[in-house]
Write a structure and sequence with these properties.
- The chain is α/β, with parallel strands linked by helices and 132 residues long.
- The chain has one domain.
- It has four helices and five strands; from the N terminus they run E-H-E-E-H-H-H-E-E.
- Strands 1-3-2-5-4 form a five-stranded mixed sheet, covered by helices on one side.
- The longest helix is centred in the middle third of the chain and has 21 residues, at 70-90.
- The chain is globular and about 40 Å long.
- The two termini are 27 Å apart.
Length: 132
């Protein structure tokens, strides 16, 4: 089953359509530098390695221009990819805006909810996950 990055908001109560769309655009720009959709993303955690197929739209020239700041595009695009693979790999969805933050920041959170940290490499593509 392929995971459409632009549809994550449908299953993640912590994402609005607008936020999901922005993250999916950023991911499309980053992934589009190296790959075409669909693409298998290798995902690893402490227990297992698995590949998941992600799909994305575009990117258009306008989207590439809008996300010309590579740091912003990488950060926001990584949120989209990380959320997709955490959902597929662990069956977890975001319930609040606390995405892909560093493990130590997640450990300090007092929400009592499970937290994950993810590192996304768009060029490979690969995601490394770690429970916080």
């Amino acid at each position: 089953m392929a995971i459409a990055l632009e549809d994550l908001h449908r299953r993640h109560p912590g994402l609005t359509l607008a936020v999901c769309s922005a993250y999916a655009e950023a991911a499309a720009v980053c992934l589009g530098r190296h790959h075409v959709s669909p693409q298998a993303v290798r995902t690893t955690d402490e227990r297992a390695e698995q590949s998941y197929v992600v799909t994305w739209l575009g990117p258009s020239k306008r989207q590439e221009a809008a996300w010309a700041n590579r740091d912003d595009a990488t950060r926001d695009g990584a949120y989209s990819v990380a959320l997709a693979v955490v959902e597929a790999h662990l069956g977890m969805v975001t319930t609040m805006y606390r995405l892909a933050q560093k493990v130590d920041q997640a450990r300090k959170a007092s929400s009592g909810l499970p937290a994950m940290a993810a590192v996304v490499a768009f060029g490979e593509p690969r995601v490394a996950l770690r429970r916080a």
